[in-house]
Amino acid sequence: MCGAELKPLPEGVQRVAALLQAKGHPHAPVMLDEAARTAQQAADALGVVLGQIAKSIVFRRKGGAAGEGEPAQETAVLVITSGDLRVDEQKVEALVGKLGRADADFVKARTGFAIGGVSPIGHREPALLLIDRELFRFDDIWAAAGHPHGVFRLRPQDLPHLTGGAPVVDVTVSRTA
């Protein structure tokens, strides 16, 4: 034994693992030896094609519901898409309203995860989630598990169940463009 197997999982990965277990998901998170902060790094570490990585892209939705006399809240919008595709911000805006960039502090505050480890589940605050239909090109995909070294295996059709019913939509730049 090298002792690594005795290390506790990072807090974010523990949160994701507990949710996966509670929902009866058959695959627990695994910790990679190398960081997988990008979809390409994750694909290389797992030996899968880039499109099989379910990358989480976070935007900041401008405005939103606010109480009487309170400023409008900015909401996190999480788009889960294939690692080989780019998100079309205009398509996302057509679905959820005006978007802005989400910096690292906003992402961490809203999701509870650092950029490079944002999981599709287990967020600190409720987020507006969208699942890109292009993930359904694959039988198996991999998503971040709350840490740059943590990932978990799933099927695209597991995402709506795991995320509490997030819709499957077309939000990527056309591959023919």
The CATH architecture name reads Alpha-Beta Complex
What do we call the CATH topology?
YbaK protein
Low-confidence stretches: 66-71
Q: Give me the secondary-structure category.
A: alpha/beta
What does this 3D model show about the protein?
By secondary structure, this protein is an alpha/beta fold. The chain has one domain (11-65, 73-164): YbaK protein (Alpha-Beta Complex). It contains five helices and eight strands. The protein has helices at residues 11-22, 39-46, 89-96, 104-111, 159-162; strands at 30-31, 53-61, 75-82, 99-101, 128-132, 141-144, 150-154, 168-169. Strands 1, 2, 3, 4, 5, 6, 7 and 8 form an eight-stranded mixed sheet that branches. Strand 6 (141-144) and strand 7 form a beta hairpin.
Can you tag this structure with a few keywords?
globular; alpha/beta; 8 strands
Secondary structure layout:
Blueprint: H1 11-22, E1 30-31, H2 39-46, E2 53-61, E3 75-82, H3 89-96, E4 99-101, H4 104-111, E5 128-132, E6 141-144, E7 150-154, H5 159-162, E8 168-169
Parallel strand pairs: 2-6, 3-5, 5-8
Antiparallel strand pairs: 1-7, 2-3, 2-4, 6-7
Describe the structure in brief:
It contains 5 helices and 8 strands; from the N terminus they run αβαββαβαβββαβ.
